[in-house]
């Protein structure tokens, strides 16, 4: 049973690493990298929850190929499509939010000449 | 932003069209094979970003103006909303009002190909214009910043005192 | 032993090492490149888990993020300082939090009724039929037969989306994920398009130069 829990645990550790980078790092670029790692980990955990094994073969993606004759096999053995639908929009949203944060970082660098938040606090521009 | 070397420019001339075609294919066949509006739109944005990076800012300002990207972004979002509003013809908001057709063919699944097209245009144009805004942002008082390949990065800059 | 499970564990180990290097290294360019490794590893993980749409989208999104971040980092040099004392305190708090939630995972795996339990990897909730889930909570999950209803919404979408029920028309899309995103849950996609639009307009608003101010600064530099 423990081996079946291990993917969840590792993906969760990835989330904790991203969260640590956001909370504990002083460099703005490190904070952006941490947020990106957090996004990837959350998407991974969501897709991991919906996985269904096909014994002895590759997992069946929820796409119908070769006409309606294959539909009963797909309904009985395919991976859950709902978490994939949630994650699909989440990936593109994380790209847009990263672009917004990079724009903020560029403005901060232009004003303070540094990416270090501690020095920004000391400068009080 | 300067362009890149001659090899990169020639390879981009050969390859960028194929990337754009692949993006359009992914958008249109999104309901039959893996992909869809989001993946196809981001691939299309990738092709446009490649052209801007390889040929530099002055050339691509004529070919891919920023104004057209912003307008296409808004038009794509409005197109998606219009498809949703047209669902009122069949009973309610976002109702699929075109016939479902035979699965695994191109003209099937009702309004889903039209929604895919709107989403693809929106995501592609929006991400390309965001990249343009980020890449063409310059510090005050410096000249043309150096491109990605062409040498050492900028030093501290010499633009006087900040107000 | 499931080969997908072994491959997935090896991939997650690689991604964990990459993410720790990305967070801890002092050079910003190395940090961004390790972020690229984590992103591509995520794409391969999506392929292994049977999600080809997500794999395509993740690869291209990762490439765009890398282009933007490398461009920002490589022209603006700023040496990161050594870690201060507050980092150590915050880091230890985060580690304790991580250990606590991992312990909570294990507790949930054993306690509660069948619906609250964390299911084993590869055996999602839709394997149970709806009747079996309420009748025998701690019993063996059964594979959904074609006559019974699946135990979760994802299973119901798999079963009814293509052909439809007597009440609602089916989508007709062979790609079930796009059918859910654009037809069954189309309203959420409208909200997501709004979020992307707002984020991009926010990026414009931050990067915009006010006309007169820029001109005044240019004059002062001469």
Give keywords:
heterotrimer, A: 125 residues, Helix Hairpins, 73% helix, C: 222 residues, mainly alpha, extended
Question: Could you explain the architecture of this structure?
Answer:
- The complex is a heterotrimer of chains A (125), B (163) and C (222).
- Chain A has 125 residues and is mainly α.
- Chain A has a single domain, classed as Helix Hairpins (Orthogonal Bundle).
- Chain A has five helices and no strands.
- Chain A has helices at residues 2-24, 28-49, 71-77, 81-112, 117-123.
- The mean pLDDT of chain A is 86.
- With 163 residues, chain B is mainly alpha-helical.
- Chain B is elongated.
- Chain B is built from five helices and no strands.
- In chain B, α1 (6-28) runs antiparallel to α2 (37-55), α2 (37-55) crosses α3 and α2 packs parallel to α5 (112-135).
- Chain B has one domain (6-135).
- Chain C is an all-alpha fold and 222 residues long.
- Among the domains of chain C are: 1-82; 83-112.
- In chain C, 67% of the residues lie in helices and 0% in strands.
- Chain C has helices at residues 3-24, 28-48, 52-74, 85-110, 130-135, 153-160, 176-184, 186-207, 211-221.
- In chain C, α1 (3-24) packs antiparallel against α2, α2 (28-48) runs antiparallel to α3 (52-74) and α7 (176-184) crosses α8.
- The longest helix of chain C is centred in the middle third of the chain and has 26 residues, at 85-110.
- Residues 132-146 and 218-222 of chain C have low confidence and may be disordered.
- The chains are: A mainly alpha (125), B mainly alpha (163), C mainly alpha (222).
- Chain A binds chain B through residues 61, 63-68, 88-89, 91-92, 95-96, 99, 102-103, 106, 110-111, 113, 125, and chain B through 33-34, 36, 38, 42, 103-104, 123, 126-127, 130-131, 133-134, 137, 139-140, 156-157, 162.
